Amino acid sequence: MPSHEIKLNTGATIPQIGLGTWRSTDDEEAYNAVVSAVKDAGYLHIDTAAIYGNEVAVGKGIKKAIEFLGGRDKIFVTTKLWGTQQREPKKALQQSLERLGLDYVDLYLIHWPVALKTRNCPNGDLMSIPTNPENPGVRDVDLEGWDFTKTWALMQELPATGMTKAIGVSNFSVNNLKTLYKSPDFKIPPAVNQVECHPLLPQFELLDFCRENNIVLEAYSPLGSAGSPLLKEEVIIELGKKYNVEPAQVCISWGVNRGYVVLPKSVHAERIKSNKVIVEMSKEDIAKIDNIHKTQGIQRFVNPPFEPFPIFE
Ligand code: A2P
Question: Is 52 labeled as catalytic in the residue annotation?
Answer without folding.
Answer: yes
